[in-house]
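User: If only I could read backbone structure tokens as easily as an amino acid sequence. Those tokens are not coordinates but codes from a learned vocabulary of shapes. Could you go through the record with me and say what the backbone is doing? Here is the record:
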Amino acid sequence: MEDQKQLFTVSIYTENNIGLLNRISAIFQRRHINIESINTSVSEIEEVSKFTIVVNLSEEKVKKILGQIEKQVEVIKAYYHTDDETIYQESCMFKLQSDLLFEERQIQNIIKESTLINGVKEFLKWCKEKKISMAVCTNKQEHLAIDLLKKIGINDYFEYVAGSDTFDYCKPDPRHITSIIEIIGGDVKKSLMFGDSETDANAAKAASVPVILLENGYTEKNSNEIYHNHLIKDFIGVEKIVSTYLKD
């Protein structure tokens, strides 16, 4: 039965960032869930780590936990398996360069299936036609962000991409936003921030930049608890909102 408790092995692929272990364990702690065992290690991809966590829960609760874990911005993908689906064996481990087996891009495509939100491509085309400068401000590492943008076919729409390792600071520090605006020759007073998390909103607020917040983003808070000027479910019709800011 789905409500029956059993052992599950949770595998989480993440970027290698400081503090992520505490935040992932806090997700279990807030729900009073005991972790039977936890292990972290490097994965086949440079700068991508793997968490292996064993918990005794119902399948329904495991699914909910994974949903919260995947909302963490550094998390690439999370999976769970039952004991019956897990093979235990004693083995000798040898560390090999991943390019002997796979190319890094192939592995990235396997562990992360990214798709565009409805209306994004049309909105980006509209901005390009209106000669609106666009850039990406993310707390993912810069090279991973660029790889992802290329993978989903929208990298060419952006004039600049800044990740957590581009400057000596990152969101929620407002300089992460203001520095990008300066680099692309923009004006803070004529800028907008699209975000999907409290970190995005707080950085934009500190930079005095209006926020268009996407619902159900990388946060456990409700949208009404996060600062924003506009709230959207997808990018269909967003052109109308942006047009109100296009003033000479």
